Amino acid sequence: MCGLIGVISKKEQLNFEASYLDPLKYALDRMEYRGPDNRGVWCENGICLGHRRLSIIDLSPDGNQPFKSADERYVIVFNGEIYNFEELRSDLVRLGHVFRTESDTEVIIAAYCEYGSDFCNRLRGMFAVVIFDRKENLIVFSRDRLGKKPLFIFENDEVIIFSSEIKFFHAFNIPLEINEESVLNFLSLQYIPGPATIYHQIRQLQPAELLIHDLNSKKSTSSLYWNMLDHVGRDQRMPEIEEIDELLTQSIKYRLVANVDIGLLLSGGIDSSLLAAYMHEVAGKQVKAFNVGFSDRSLDESAYAKQVAESLGLDLVTLNVEEISPDNFIESVYHADQPLGDSAIIPTYLIAKSIKQHVKVVLSGEGADELFHGYDHYNYEKYYYGLGKISFESAGRLLDMVPEAGINKLEKVKKKLRSINSFERDTGVSRWTSILSPALSRDFMHRAKRPAESYEQQFHRYLTGFRKNAGKLESSLMLDLLTWLPDDLLVKTDRMMMACSVEARTPFLDHKLVEKVLMSSGSFNKHLFQSKNYLRQLLKRKLPASVSETIAGRPKQGFETPKVKWLNTNLSELSSLLFSEENLRQNPCLDNIKVAGLWHDFRKQKPGVNNRLIWNIFCFLEWYRQHNNHFGLKP
């Protein structure tokens, strides 16, 4: 797990060192948290590759990057882990390759040398890779299948700049204009769907994208080496429990490959408890698990985590997480990189700070809810289709007839129905998780600007792709895998953990397991695909009955946060500053009058105020303040 940054000149630069090399080195110094174990820079003829290393596999200096092949034809910088590198290495040795190190980095270079542009299909892991072929004058960019590791790219007529984090482009003297469409999408979703970013001039490499730039012809070619749509509905039968069991066991084994200790985030929910059982079974030694206790009983799950740990004999470490403060909110926004309204970034960041004192690597349960339908909004979507899509106007009229006594609770439901009814296109399950529809979010943007398009067309296109081999409901249930997962949940985990030099691994997102589930999409309405029943059944096999019945029978408890309380207490001074009339007037993206009115209603505790929207705008205002200061990076 590491940090990347690099510059590729397209033409001879008169002042390359001052314009690009010095800023790159400065940015690399500021990126130390992504890789405190080594800093490396390689330059040649207007091409400069920078790397920060967090040593996980082959801890010796032999694994430092940028890394050159034995014949010095290839130079690589790489962020992530290749879990099957030992098997791949053995295959390559049989084909005549000789290795000088024990690192997975050298295996990637050999795989590219042997298999060419098909090399990514041989890799099982999470990665962002940049390879320079000095003989053919090619730059190869690639990213893992599900988008666990980030890679951002800026390109103009003179230069290509890439980085693991978007903020570090501020170190270079290049224009960065805020993308209004991305702001609109953020207000609606609390995240920005890729490949677009918050800046017009920068894009993300898509999950599973292979981008090859030819420095001789000045042309780039882009393709997907893996596409989840290719696996949808290919198998008419449901997976047996034993098949899921085998894939999870294999996934855990791969994710225990490391030369450092590996821990586990144990909340006491179904996902992390099941990972604990597998890890205990596979590791062959005592597993160190980490749990966070909260003073708020509605958030605290530590009693369940303790039951699981005691039943498996785990070494349970209860983390002492500091109280939420303005400083760690500001730090969380800084490390989130782009605007991200997921309030769980703050406790995740604080957890990572505590974990850093114990281990470098943890296993985490991201992906289980998306694959095995653990969220409430999947049930909402099933009801939506099961009721034959009752019109939201009709539903709204029915709610108007509810007695006034229930208005406080039902006002939010009515507003959600109005928001859903204002969508111009089908956006699948995101209609339930969105804060507002794009049409309603647009009211909070600055009217002097041109109207922005929204994510609706993009999500509708994804749905159309799924529907080639799946029904409408099944397609909708799969949408989160292409949207919310890579652009919110995995961003939160990667950025907050890497901010503290900790690597998070996600066993439920092994691509072989994902493929198996997608192939069986035609069975999503059957019992085992209801509310994670596959995982509940496995849990009952892996844990003592007294514990498994308790954990499996628990209602889902998400990583909720008391946002409203924070805004009125710990973060009240900062929120008052950011929502002040003066600060709102200075923001070119938002309608200051509309936002001020929303804030006034929130402070007066008026019924039906959209608290998620308030928090989302609060996060954007802090992000914009840091953007306006170039994240402290511009010379």
How is the secondary structure organized here?
Elements (H helix, E strand, L loop, with lengths): L1 E8 L6 H15 L7 E7 L2 E7 L13 E2 L5 E9 L2 H10 L9 H12 L9 E9 L4 E6 L8 E4 L3 E5 L16 H10 L12 E3 L4 E6 L4 E6 L16 H14 L7 E4 L4 H14 L4 E5 L9 H11 L2 E5 L6 H11 L8 H11 L5 E3 L4 H5 L3 H11 L5 H9 L6 H15 L8 H4 L4 H4 L14 H11 L5 H7 L5 H15 L4 E3 L5 H9 L13 H10 L2 H8 L10 H6 L3 H7 L2 H5 L6 H12 L7 H18 L7
Parallel strand pairs: 13-14, 13-16, 14-15, 16-17
Antiparallel strand pairs: 1-3, 1-9, 2-3, 4-5, 5-6, 6-7, 7-11, 8-9, 8-10, 11-12
Helix pairs in contact: 2-3, 5-6, 6-7, 6-20, 7-21, 8-9, 9-18, 12-13, 16-17, 20-21
Write the CATH homologous superfamily of the largest domain. Aminohydrolase, N-terminal nucleophile (Ntn) domain
Rg, rounded, reads 24 Å
Q: Specify the helix fraction band.
A: 40-55%
Low-confidence stretches: 401-409
Q: For the report, how would you describe the main beta sheet?
A: 6 strands, antiparallel
> Can you name the CATH architecture of the largest domain?
4-Layer Sandwich
What is the total number of structural domains?
3
| Alpha plus pi helix count | 26
What would you say this structure looks like, in words?
The chain has 635 residues and is α+β, with helices and mostly antiparallel strands. The chain has three domains: 2-226, Glutamine Phosphoribosylpyrophosphate, subunit 1, domain 1 (4-Layer Sandwich), CATH 3.60.20.10; 230-372 and 481-552, 3-Layer(aba) Sandwich (Rossmann fold); 562-635, no CATH class. Helix content is 42%, strand content 14%. The strands form three sheets. The chain has a six-stranded antiparallel beta sheet with strand order 2-3-1-9-8-10, covered by helices on one side. The chain has a six-stranded antiparallel beta sheet with strand order 4-5-6-7-11-12, with helices on one face. A five-stranded parallel beta sheet has the order 15-14-13-16-17. The two termini are 28 Å apart. Mean pLDDT is 91; it is low at 401-409.
